[in-house]
C-alpha cells in the first residue's frame, strides 16, 4: 500500500533543514535590520538627483530670460558639462572610497552638492552656471548611482538586489516630483527661489542622512 506524501509546506519553518531555515530567517531579517540604510540612501539620492538632474532642465527657460541667454545653448552646454565632469570624476571615485570609506565619500559628495546648490541661486552668467554644473557633475560621482550601489554592497549580503532596486527607484521618484514642484515655485516667484528650495533639501535632508550613514558605518555590523 502506497503511503500518501505529506503536503508540502511553504512557510519559513516548513520542510527546510535547520541550516536553510537559519539562512531564510537571516535573509528576511537583513532588510529589516538595515531599513534605515535604505531609507537614508534613497532620500540622499532623491535630493542629489533633484539638484543635479531634475532642477536645471526645469528652470532653463526662466534662467535664460533672467540672465539674457540663449535657452538652446543652456540646454546643450549645461548637461554636457555635467556629464563630462561626472565621467572624469568617476575615475577617482574608487580611490577616494578606498581611502575614506564608502559612507564618508557619500558625505563628502553630499556636502559638495549642498555647497554648489547654495551658490546656484546667485549665478549671474553662463560661465558661472557651467562652473556649477562641473562641480555638480563631479560630486555626483561621489554620491550618485555608483556610490549608492556601494553603500548597499557594504550593508547587504542576501537582499542586495532588493536594496539597490529600492534606492535606484528614487531616481524616477525624483524626476516625477521635483520638476512640477520647481516649475510651480519658479512661475509663482523666480527660478532662484526654486533653486533655494533644492538647496534647503541638501542641507536639511541629504547631509544629516549622510552623517547617519557615517555613524552606522563606524559603529554598525557590516557585510564588508
Automatic annotation (TrEMBL):
Task: Mark the transmembrane ranges.
Answer: 37-56, 76-97, 129-151, 163-182
Q: Provide the Gene Ontology terms for cellular component.
A: membrane
Q: Which residues form the Major facilitator superfamily (MFS) profile domain?
A: 22-224
Q: Where in the cell is it found?
A: Membrane
| Protein name per the record | Major facilitator superfamily (MFS) profile domain-containing protein
- Entry keywords, A to Z: Membrane, Transmembrane, Transmembrane helix
Q: Which organism is it from?
A: Diacronema lutheri (Unicellular marine alga)
Q: Which Gene Ontology MF annotations are present?
A: transmembrane transporter activity
Carries keyword Transmembrane helix? yes
Keyword Membrane on entry:
yes
Upper classification of the organism: Eukaryota, Haptista, Haptophyta, Pavlovophyceae, Pavlovales
Q: Quick one: where is this thing mainly located?
A: membrane
Amino acid at each position: 500500500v502506497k503511503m500518501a506524501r505529506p503536503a508540502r509546506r511553504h512557510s519559513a519553518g516548513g520542510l527546510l533543514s535547520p541550516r536553510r531555515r537559519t539562512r531564510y530567517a537571516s535573509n528576511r531579517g537583513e532588510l529589516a535590520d538595515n531599513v534605515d540604510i535604505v531609507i537614508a540612501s534613497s532620500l540622499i539620492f532623491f535630493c542629489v538627483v533633484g539638484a543635479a538632474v531634475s532642477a536645471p532642465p526645469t528652470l532653463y527657460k526662466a534662467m535664460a530670460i533672467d540672465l539674457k541667454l540663449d535657452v538652446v545653448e543652456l540646454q546643450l552646454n549645461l548637461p554636457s558639462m555635467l556629464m563630462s565632469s561626472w565621467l572624469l570624476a568617476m575615475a577617482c571615485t574608487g580611490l577616494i572610497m578606498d581611502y575614506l570609506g564608502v559612507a564618508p565619500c557619500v558625505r563628502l559628495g553630499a556636502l559638495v552638492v549642498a555647497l554648489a546648490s547654495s551658490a546656484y541661486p546667485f549665478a549671474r552668467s553662463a560661465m558661472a552656471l557651467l562652473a556649477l554644473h562641473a562641480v555638480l557633475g563631479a560630486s555626483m560621482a561621489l554620491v550618485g548611482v555608483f556610490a549608492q550601489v556601494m553603500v548597499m554592497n557594504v550593508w547587504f549580503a542576501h537582499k542586495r538586489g532588493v536594496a539597490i532596486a529600492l534606492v535606484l527607484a528614487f531616481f524616477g521618484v525624483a524626476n516625477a516630483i521635483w520638476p512640477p514642484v520647481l516649475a510651480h515655485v519658479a512661475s509663482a516667484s523666480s527660478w532662484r527661489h526654486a533653486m533655494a528650495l533644492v538647496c534647503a533639501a541638501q542641507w536639511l535632508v541629504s547631509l544629516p542622512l549622510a552623517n547617519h550613514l557615517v555613524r552606522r558605518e563606524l559603529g554598525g555590523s557590516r557585510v564588508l
